[in-house]
Amino acid sequence: MKVTCLEGFFGGFWNRMVYKCRFTILLVFTIWAAFAVTFAMNIKTQSKEDSELQEDNYILKTKREIDRVFPPLITEVIND
User: Fold this and answer.
1) How far apart are CA 49 and CA 35, in angstroms?
2) pTM higher than 0.90 for the full model?
């Protein structure tokens, strides 16, 4: 029976290494999961809109100009 490269890699050294280090791998995974859960629990909703762009930013200027020339349709429907 011919063994492919992938089967040879995962069937030989890699398989023995995972078997020998299974408790270390489990410990590292558990620590990482605890860190991720703790970090996720500390995420709060955004209380105010943070404006990282300054008022004279070219992207904001372009958006304002587009909104001025082509007013959003939703505000026209709501105002009617």
Assistant:
1) 28
2) no
